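Troubleshooting log. The previous run stalled partway through. Resubmitting the same two chains, unchanged.
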Amino acid sequence: MRVRRLAAISAAIALIAATAPVLAVEPDEVLADPALEARAREISRDLRCVVCQSQSIDDSNAPLAKDMRLLVRERLVAGDSDKEIYAFMVARYGDYVLLEPPVQGNTILLWAAPALIFLVAAFSAGAYLVSMQRADDRKREKAAADKGDGAW
Amino acid sequence: MKRLVLFAPLILFALLGVYFAIGLQRDPSRIPSVLIDRPLPAFDLPPIEGAEKGFASSDLEGRVALINIFGSWCASCLIEHPVLMEISRTEDVLLAGLDWKDPNGGGRRWLDLHGNPYDFVGDDADGRVAIDFGVTGAPETFIVDRNGRIRHKHVGPITMRVWRTELRPLIQMLEREGEGA
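Second attempt completed without errors. Output:
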């Protein structure tokens, strides 16, 4: 009895473990060549679903995202490089379609901001510490001078 | 000088406040089109069910045209359609329709039911031409000049107000532009 129950429970656990996470990619889209399919998945993760906007086309169930996934796979099969596929999408939807903005003139501030903010913060902190140090030194000098006065 | 430094955080805060106040007023769903001033993508779409002529990019050669992307499944198109009917009745403008992913004769029934304002209608069954236009949803409308360049994109339904204030003046300007050349 006990063995049976144990077997049932392990079977249930095995079944749950065997289910794949829910994917937007539908079986009829998947390419026969696993290497190409892997590239398609990677590219799809970097392309924005222009309907849902905060999801990649790899995550989205929107019909337009499906069309775009199919298009990515079609271009891959036709022999396009990853770069050519990104360029193809950017030519139609603009840089907006890339989930990671490219480093260029109008995004340089965006990319440089963390480093700039760090530098400003480091500089202000440094200036503050130096001024504290100076104030401390002055106090100590004064104390030493006062002591000297007293001893005199 | 020291006083001024004390005010720095407040000034910084005010600047950020202004920046975000402007940013929050903007509609994040409006994606600027990269196709403005670029040539119309080349396409040759078959006719919708029961029609004889389709819609190819070469149909528009040398003409100012309004290209409207619609679908019988699109709710906002229902709001827009009477405006397109009115335009086709009263104005001398070339109207072209792109029936976007409308299987099982949806486009045919739509035009039978609501009237056909278009000079050309193409059936974009797999949605590839819509992607070439960078379409993100229906309805969307493009204005093309005589040289086959996309000059304007309107997202969402055309209302009478949009037509009078945005599209008609532009089309009239483009018509004149062509005459001068």
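Takeaways: The domain at 34-180 of chain B is CATH 3.40.30.10 (Glutaredoxin). The CA atoms of residues 43 and 129 of chain B lie 7 Å apart.
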